[in-house]
Amino acid sequence: MSELLKSGNLTGILKSRGVVSAEKTVPEGSGPELFFDWRVLIPLAALAVNLLVHTLTPTNPGYRVKELPYFTIFLYILIGVLGLYGAVSVFNRKRREKLVYKSWFLGAAFLVLGLYNVITLKLGLIPSLYFPAPERIVQVFINDWFFMLRCLVYSLRLLLGGFFLGAFVGVLTGTLIGWSQRWNYWIMPCIRIVGPIPSTAWIPIALVVFTRATDAALFLIALGVWFPTTILTSSGILNVRKSYFEVSSTLGAGTLRNVLSIALPAAAPNIFAGLFNGTSSSFLTLMAAEMIGCKFGIGWYINWQRETMAYSQVYAALIVIALTFSLLINIQFRIRNRVLSWQKGTIRW
Fold first, then answer.
1. Per the domain annotation, does 188 fall within a domain?
2. Domain housing 95
3. 109, 142, 175: which is the final residue of a domain?
4. Which range scores top for mean pLDDT: 12-21, 166-175, 194-203, 281-290?
């Protein structure tokens, strides 16, 4: 026993003496795990039903425009992508669990898409001018993708510029009113008066004050982000335990150190919640500002196509906005999870 204690390698000595087997043990989950879950087929089954119905059902005789093959091609692409993802999920547990979790929702979404195709293209139950068939919307992405991309880039430039400006000022203002009673006394009444007013209500004034429509849009977007970020940042700082600051001050920390090392990290979940709300507000403000004052952008594109009665382009632009907004929110979620990884297990997001 003394030899074992001195060596510090108990497992190695036991293996050399035959007490423990010298064969390597494979940790659980480290090797390839082959498993097939039938639920990964639910989205594929929904797509197959859509394809059969679309192929076998005749087109409505009142459909006056030329029928296009884009919806069929779109279904084949989705079947190929999901089929490949399902095949990979057999060997990858995380991907399989993710696909299984979303399988029922994806299947329902694809069935709703197929139902919309039947109502518009096959039965003609609603006006095709205002509710174009899916093939017309897919055609927009094929023929007009470059121009839509330019409009999106222009809008993102305004959106991100206004978002970061509003986030910076919002965190700064929220920190001041949450930390200092003097700043709270002077700033909070102004926030209570100005903050609840929707940022879109300031469009007429912003267009008069700023010489360029883009500057007005930046101001309005920043204003929409500033209010929720300010309120939630100040709320998070006010809810921090005073004992933390007392202990830190006892150890020699100053005001700036307390704010940067205790107040802001503790209020980080509230700050991110304010940024999430600000992102939604910034999109609404951007669309309204572009439709009224700006001469380019995705909001301007929607308004322009609406005036020309090109509703397939309008729906395509709405899809682009939805995907972009979802992408930005997911990026923020990932940043939050990375920044606040030390709070997992103590705070439920």
1. yes
2. 38-142
3. 142
4. 166-175
